[in-house]
Amino acid sequence: MIVHRRTVAKTVAFEGVGLHTGVPVTVTFQPGEKGLWFRLASERVEAIPANVSDTTRSTKVGSVGTVEHLMSALAALGITDAEVEFTAPEAPGLDGSSEPFWRPLAEVGTTDLGTRELRDLFSRVFLQEDAVKIAVGKGSGHWRFEFECDGRWPHSQHFELEKLPEGYGSEIAPARTFAFQEEVPHIIAAGLAKGLDGDSALILGPDDYQNKARFVDEPVRHKLLDLIGDLYLAGVPIDAINVVGTRSGHRSNVKAATMLYQATH
User: Which of 20, 69, 222, 250 is catalytic?
Assistant: First the structure.
C-alpha cells in the first residue's frame, strides 16, 4: 500500500475550551515530516494506537484528551505528518464537530512529502464484542455506520458514503457530539462536558431532538466522524479501506485501530 505523505502548508492555530474540561486551550498545527505528533509542555507523543491512554467518552493520546475530532479532520485531508502543540491537556471542543478544524486546514492546504509504503491489507480486520462490530477491508473509501438504540428513540440510524474523503466536509464534518437527555445529569455530575452548550452538543430526548439538529440523522453521522478519527490512529488512508461500524464507541474503535496498525505496519 502506497501512502502519499502530506503535511500542513503552514502553521494554523485554533483557540477554544476543552470539550469536557472547559479549560481554555490553543492547539497549533505545524508542518512536520515524522508522522503525527502531539506536544504538551515537555511531552511529545506520536498519535498511534499504542499511545492511547483513555477512551472514556473520548479518545486520549498521552496526556491530551478528545483528539478524535481533529484526527477525523486530518484523515479527511490526508494529512499524515504534523507537529500538533497544545497549551492544555484537552483539544478545544469548538462547535462539537470537526468542521471548525477541517475547513481552516483545507483552506491552508498541504505540502507533498513524497510516499511511504505500508503492508497491504490482505485479510479483513474484524472486531466483534457482543453487538459491537467493526469490519475493515482493503477498498476505496466506502464507510458505513449503524447506530442502534434498541428500544429508545431514535431507534436505528444508518449512514454511509461510498467514496471518502469526497463529501466529508458537507456530510460528516458538521455533525456534532450528542448525548441522551437522561444521561445529561450524570455527565454533569461526573464533571464532564464543561465546554459544551446547547449549540455545540445535540440532545436526544425521548421522542425528538431537544435542540436544533443539523441533519435529521446527525447522531449516526457523528459516530462515523468519530470512527474515522479513531481509526486514523493506524495511519492508513481512509480512501484505501472500506469500513463498517456497528454500535461502536471509542474503546472498540481504538481496538480496531490497533488491529489495523498491526496488520499494516
Answer: 250
| Residue 244 maps to a domain | no
CA-based nearest residue to 71, from 94, 41, 37: 37
Residue with cell 488491529: 259
Output the CA torsion sign for 111, 116, 120, 124: negative
Low pLDDT (below 70) residues in the chain: none
Residue 241 within a domain: no
Distance CA 191, CA 196 (A): 12
Report pTM.
0.96
How far is residue 164 CA from its own chain's centroid?
A: 14
Strands 43-46, 36-40: pairing kind: antiparallel
Angle between helices 68-77 and 99-108 (to 10 degrees): 40
Instruction: Tell me, yes or no, if 250 is annotated catalytic.
Output: yes
* 144, part of any domain: no
CA of 214: how far to CAs of 95, 222, 262, in Å? Answer: 12, 11, 37
β-pair type (132-138, 125-129): antiparallel
CATH number at residue 14: 3.30.230.20
Tens-digit pLDDT profile for residues 139-156: 999 999 999 998 899 999
Our count of domains for the chain comes to 1
Expressed in angstroms, the distance from the first to the final Cα of the chain is 10
